[in-house]
Amino acid sequence: MNHPELTLTDRRFGQTRRHDAWWLQPLAVFLGLSVFGLYSLWVVFQGDHYHHGPYLSPFYAPLLFDPAGHISGHSWLAGRPDWLPLWVPPSLLILWAPLGFRFTCYYYRGAYYKAFWADPPSCTVSEPRKEYRGEGSFPLIIQNVHRYFLYFALIFVVILAYDAWKALWFDNGNGGKSFGIGIGTLILTGNAILLGGYTLGCHSLRHLVGGIRDRLSGAPIRRTAYNCVSCLNRRHMLWAWMSLCWVGFSDVYVRLCSMGVLSDWRIL
């Protein structure tokens, strides 16, 4: 029985036999990450309207010091360190950790490899290069630092949860604090919850709590932790996008309240 000879032919970029709108998802990822990246860059160097009452924008948490001319009541230090150049804003000192965690995230890698590098742009769609180097060589080998960024991300979840707690205490006009709940309180609490769900569902954390053992049945506590992380990990993409959008939304809300565009409504 004769078989037809199969030959490999060069294909142009984007060539495929798919008839669906395969380009829609990478385009949406490209636009979403681009908008968030540009907005984050602007927020880092803008240095204003980052707080309102007990509310602190997550882009500035933790606030190591206030920018010149601002007294927010949220800063950890009394003033800017003398050794720090004047052009360095406080948010630049802390944002490298959460952004590094997201940039090296296993989900986001697959998302922006397709959206920005077209590697490949989608399944069964030809890409613009003829060789595959993977993550075993420079520069993509640096993605392996994700497991170390995880430790910083866990610390930031605690800090943001503390900021959500502080958002429950408002100035009572007599120099003290009184308990209350505003719209901003709910927004910052939701931000901490969503970032917690995204971070605690991380693939690296899943390996850390259970993957290093060959048999989990003999370690009930580790097995329970592994199952909890796995439950969150099943919706890791959803947690990733919801938390990303909510971080931006939280900053916008605090910013608009600080500018006087919005008035924070006290529920309690």
Characterise this structure.
This protein has one domain (24-130, 139-259). The protein is built from eight helices and four strands; from the N terminus they run αββαααββαααα. The chain has helices at residues 24-46, 96-103, 106-115, 146-166, 183-200, 203-211, 220-233, 236-259, and strands at 51-52, 55-56, 169-171, 177-179. It has a two-stranded antiparallel ribbon with strand order 1-2. Strands 3-4 form a two-stranded antiparallel ribbon. The N and C termini lie far apart (82 Å). The relative contact order is 0.14.
Q: How many separate domains make up the residues?
A: 1
Radius of gyration: 23 Å
**Secondary-structure-derived class:** mainly alpha
**Overall mean confidence score, pLDDT:** 88
Number of helices: 8
Please state roughly what percent of the residues sit in beta strands, choosing from under 5%, 5-15%, 15-25%, 25-35%, 35-45% or over 45%: under 5%
Which strands sit side by side, in order, in the main sheet? 1-2
Helical proportion, percent range: 40-55%
User: Which sheet architecture does the biggest sheet show?
Assistant: 2 strands, antiparallel
So what's the overall shape?
Answer: globular
* Poorly predicted runs: none
Distance between the termini: 82 Å
Listing every helix as H and every strand as E from the N terminus to the C terminus, the arrangement reads HEEHHHEEHHHH
| Beta strands, count | 4
